[in-house]
Amino acid sequence: MKIHFYKYHGAGNDFIMIDDRNQTHQLTSEQISFLCHRRFGVGADGLILLQNAEQYDFKMLYFNADGKESTMCGNGGRCIVAFAQQLGIVSKQCQFEAIDGLHKATMLTDGVKLEMQNVNAIVVNDNQLFLDTGSPHHILFVDDVSLVDVNVEGAKIRNSALYGKAGSNVNFVETDGNSIALRTYERGVEAETLACGTGVTAAALASHHQAKTKLTSIEVKAQGGNLKVDFKWDESQKKYYDIWLSGPAKFVFEAYIQC
């Protein structure tokens, strides 16, 4: 099967994009894994199908590099908005359906601003936290993210009994009161990625929750570039809402591949 695809990245978090509005791409997990392979395929952290949606501008169907359909991907969500604009489906603003529900987005001059789901619960255990920002995230605060062996330490936590078979993404977070630096081990990729949108969001909210910053607009430094998280906190209901993830969403190239 000959596949027409597009390559995008959001702060180094890269994706294969396929226009599947006709729903003609019935890809197996083995084919998706092949396409995402960095030696034998195109190479990507994940693959995204853009499909038609009845009530919204389009639907996002996301697969991790292991070929399995996964939970929400923040950078992938921002990149599919840029992809939809390139296809002429949307202009400056849009609404789309993802596995975790409705998302709104706005095109910026230098990227895409994406609305994330509300967060109603954060589990705290000493210096470690867990929260779901569309995907599950373990947060561990460290003094210096550059000294962490992310692939080793991240794999230990991701595969621990704490999260069972499903596992969790793992984020190592360094804060200075005004900004955040983080590195993320992503399940499904089973390695460190250069950025993770839901992880960036989780790190920002966790830092605020632990009073490591009082800001509600936080610059986040990922390995592949900078992103920003804006949010509001409802003290009475103990929830984070009106959460927006902003950053670059870059088109790289388009091509065909036999799969």
UniProtKB/TrEMBL annotation:
Pathway the protein acts in: Amino-acid biosynthesis; L-lysine biosynthesis via DAP pathway; DL-2,6-diaminopimelate from LL-2,6-diaminopimelate: step 1/1
Alphabetized GO MF terms: diaminopimelate epimerase activity
GO terms for cellular component: cytosol
Pfam families listed in its UniProt record: DAP_epimerase (PF01678)
Documented EC number(s): 5.1.1.7
Localization of this protein: Cytoplasm
Keyword Isomerase: yes
InterPro entries reported for this sequence: DAP_epimerase_DapF
Predominant localisation class: cytoplasm
Ligand binding (substrate): N13, N64, G74, N75, N169, E186, R187, G197, T198
Domain of life: Bacteria
Record's catalysed reaction(s): (2S,6S)-2,6-diaminopimelate = meso-2,6-diaminopimelate
Active site annotation, chain numbering: C73 (proton donor), C196 (proton acceptor)
GO terms under biological process: lysine biosynthetic process via diaminopimelate
Functional summary from the UniProt entry: Catalyzes the stereoinversion of LL-2,6-diaminopimelate (L,L-DAP) to meso-diaminopimelate (meso-DAP), a precursor of L-lysine and an essential component of the bacterial peptidoglycan.
Description of how the protein assembles with itself and partners: Homodimer.
PANTHER family reported in the protein's UniProt record: DIAMINOPIMELATE EPIMERASE (PTHR31689:SF0), DIAMINOPIMELATE EPIMERASE, CHLOROPLASTIC (PTHR31689)
Protein name in the entry: Diaminopimelate epimerase
Organism: Psychroflexus maritimus
Gene that this polypeptide is encoded by: dapF
